[in-house]
Amino acid sequence: MSENNDKPTENAAANPANQGGKKTFTFSSASGELVTEVIADWMPLHIDDKPAADMFYTAYLVKEDGVQRPITFCINGGPGGSSVFLQFGCAGPRIIAFDEAGHEISGAKGLVDNPSHWLGFTDLVFIDAIGTGYSRLRTEKADGSDNTAGKKDNPYWAVKKDLASIAEFMRKFLTCHNRWQSPLFFAGESYGGYRAARLAKLFSREFQLVVNGLIIVSPIWQFRDASDSDYSTSQWVNQLPVYVGIAHKHALCRHVDADTPMSDVVAAAEQFAISDYALALVAGTMMDDDERHSIFTRVADMIGLEARFVIESEGRITFGDFARELKKHDHRITDLYDGSLTSGDAFPNRTNNEAAITEALFNSMNLYAAAIYQWQRSELGVATELEYEVLNQEAHKAWKNDEKEFDLFQLAESMDDFRAGVTTNTAMKVLVVHGRYDTVTPYFASKRLLHQSRLKPEARARVTQKLYEGGHMFYSWHEQRRLFCEDVKALIQSF
């Protein structure tokens, strides 16, 4: 990678202390050297035609092909997560250092070249939703009154307004850079996958954006599947094949030999999950105790837990409990986001799961924070007094459903919009991807829901599913990142 200094960008943010950056770099790729303009700056967003917020972004624009070159907008999830994960873990030309199997490299804080970046086939724009990264509300409302009090009332921390803000940013970016004729793609991870599924319909229906393809990474489709309720079934069915895969990875499945192919083990688990297991969950005590306990004992053998624990839990094992229980005799916790990884349990005598959750969620945050500060400030010359919000827990907790018609009986879901978007946009293609060992957004939810979606064969043929080794951020595994890159390339170059 080489670089040339360019002038800083004209600052779009209202705060004069915020100064964007712009430089030209040369990145290597399989197709040759790519002279790339990298821009990091703020884009003003409006409410009632008045500036209301400034959305921060980082754009990688290769200086060739002009408007004919594809452009992909990328966003992460949370809600409350910035775009550092896709930018510095997956698609960008510079990433944080992981070993071959996705483990953090001790003491490594710098960025390394990414041989599996996407710039060889698409320009990239990484978006930080309002309240994440350096994206903020304006400090004054349109009427001049203070806008900093009551952050929990942030209008952008809501399902519908969030989607509209993303589309507003995209429209303005395409206009500013004269890219309306470029093939257009959108990539979203986790809650960003929910965003992508919703926008499948809304891009054209409400925002006049013609999107060629969606890349939906480790998505959550409907929030009822994130519940630990004893009275629903889908979330437990979704989790079971993932638990089985993790247990088999650690050679803890008792119902198969350790050398049984993973594909065979998981295929059997999927069939069991939608048959005997689902029936036992739905029936409850309407099923004979002996039969129900027999099914739950089989579950225990499949997922490597004690039969008594599974029976007492009525077959409903939360991902936090699974993380603590699977390797508790070794005082190890399996990672919620990648169950193939483990860490020491600092509190093996305690019964709550907080240690497991904290370890899984925050262990790599500092690495990503160091990466963004190095890249934005040291390399691109971004100047701001703001702290970069890698993961804004306040936004996550304050997120609202601003679409609901009733206070009861309405949880945010995306499948209807996805189904409508794929059906009506007959040129759009979709790539849905997961990591096998992710317990937070289990792959089987996508597989099951897509089979339930009633998409017509023509529409279903335009939706491709891929399952990789690894977890929620499977791309931290070197080989899986390469495979994912090839699959994204195939999608984009199919147009």
From TrEMBL:
Originating organism: Seongchinamella unica
Keyword vocabulary terms for this entry: Carboxypeptidase, Glycoprotein, Hydrolase, Protease, Signal
Entry-linked InterPro entries: AB_hydrolase_fold (IPR029058), Peptidase_S10 (IPR001563)
Name this polypeptide is given: Peptidase S10
GO biological process, one term: proteolysis
An example molecular function term from Gene Ontology annotations: serine-type carboxypeptidase activity
Annotated segments matching region Disordered: 1-22
